[in-house]
Structure formats: structure tokens, C-alpha cells
Amino acid sequence: MSHHGKPPPPHLNPARLKTALKMAISKSKFIQEKKSALTKQQRRQLADLLKVGKESSATIRVENIIRDDIYIELLELIELYCELLLARISIILDPARTTCDASLIEAVQSLIYAAPHTELNELTSIREILVYKYGPDFGRAAKENTDNFVPAKIVTRCQVEPPPEKLVTLYLCEIAKAYEAPYSKLQEYLDELAVEEKDDKDDDDNDEGGSGGIKVPNEPIAETTDEPGITKPAGAKPVSAAKKQQSEFDDLKARFAALKGVGP
């Protein structure tokens, strides 16, 4: 550490970075699995609320699922950045390199920026080591994203604002569709999907789609889930209900990316 002039205190020693990165990766994987299982359970509970007509309660509670989904996505990105730093650890540990390598600046600054928005203690250690290594000015720039090295996909997933109303509606529609539960805005949503598929448009085109009095046919929900506008897995073989729900929720990620204001 030529720019510090003395050896670093033990907890800031870059030699500890490798261990911290490995631990952050494994803990991140663990939290993602735990939260994914939890949100699956919460989706089922929300469907039960819809089935007994408690739409207002479901509308409030779905925000927790959305928040957890966004957090899981943030952890996935953090995990990738940690993997990258681990792969190029020799560049970071090279005492001759006192400035951050251009190929690592996005990952390094993103980890520093995102650390306070996670429950990963290891990430706090990683942040402190990186700030010590590259200096306080670099650390400040990363925390405030002064130079815009931290991409929008990280920044938006660290925000704490409540999700937009449209995203809440979309989640409830997808949950109602997957679990065949009644929801007042479901038919309108299915009609929008059908129109989109017909016009071969992107999913994010439907900004105001379908708000003008659409005639809602009196069909049972179970039938409407088989309308032509619904995405089905390739090769429409019969699949188990659980698999079908999983594939639909996977499709959901891409569909909601636009609403969260970030790419998938």
C-alpha cells in the first residue's frame, strides 16, 4: 500500500478480501433461496386473500413480495460482482496498483454503493477494504455515485420508495392468474395481453392500455387463464401446476423489468 505508507490495520488488510468475497457469495445465495421460498409462500397466501374477497388487504401485502423480489435481484447482481472481483483478485491485491482498474470500476463502486442496502455483513467488510485500498475520495464518489459508474440496475434496486401502482396491479393479476383467484382488474389485464400478442408489440408498450371501458365477459377465472394472450412455455406439453406457476413467474421478471425502470 504505497499510498498509505504503513501496513493496514488487520481488518482492512486486502489479503482478507478473498475470504470476505467467498463468504458474501455463499451468504447471498442462501438469502436468495430463503427469500424465494418465502415469496412463493406469500404469493399463495395472497391468492387465498383474493379468493375470500380481501382485495384491499392483498393490495397492501403484495408490496412486501415486490420488495423481496427486487432485493433478490439486487443480491443476484452483487453476487456476480463478487465473483468478478474474486476472479481478478490478483489485480486488486497488486500493491503497485493504487487506482482501480477500469475493468473493475463498475463492480467495485457498485459493491461500495450497495453495501448499506443489504444484510450482508461481509459486504460491509468488503466495502471498507476497497475504500481503504483506493482511498477516501474514491469511496465517497462510489457512495454518492458521482461519476455514474454504478449502473441504473443497482441504483433503482437500492431505492426504498413504494412500488408504482401499476406494478402492484400487475403482480396481483399474475398471482390471480396463476392460482385461479378472482381479482377485479384481471380481465382487463388479460385483454391487454391478448391485444399485445396480436399486435406483436413489446410488453412495455401498454402504458395506458385498456383503461377505457372494456367489456368484461362473465367467464369463470379458470377459463380466462387459457386465453390466447397468455404466455405458455415452449412446446405446450401438459405441465404440473407448480411448474406452470414457476414458469409464469419467470416470465414475469422480464415483464416487470420495464416498470421497475431497469433492464432484467
From TrEMBL:
Pfam family membership, one: Ist1
InterPro entries from the UniProt entry: Ist1, IST1-like
GO molecular function annotation: ATPase inhibitor activity
Domain of life: Eukaryota
Family annotation (PANTHER family): IST1 FAMILY MEMBER (PTHR12161), IST1 HOMOLOG (PTHR12161:SF5)
Region span, Disordered: 197-247
One example of a Gene Ontology biological process annotation: endosome to plasma membrane protein transport
Bias (Acidic residues): 197-208
Protein name: DUF292-domain-containing protein
Family affiliation: Belongs to the IST1 family.
GO CC field: endosome
Gene3D superfamilies: Vacuolar protein sorting-associated protein Ist1 (1.20.1260.60)
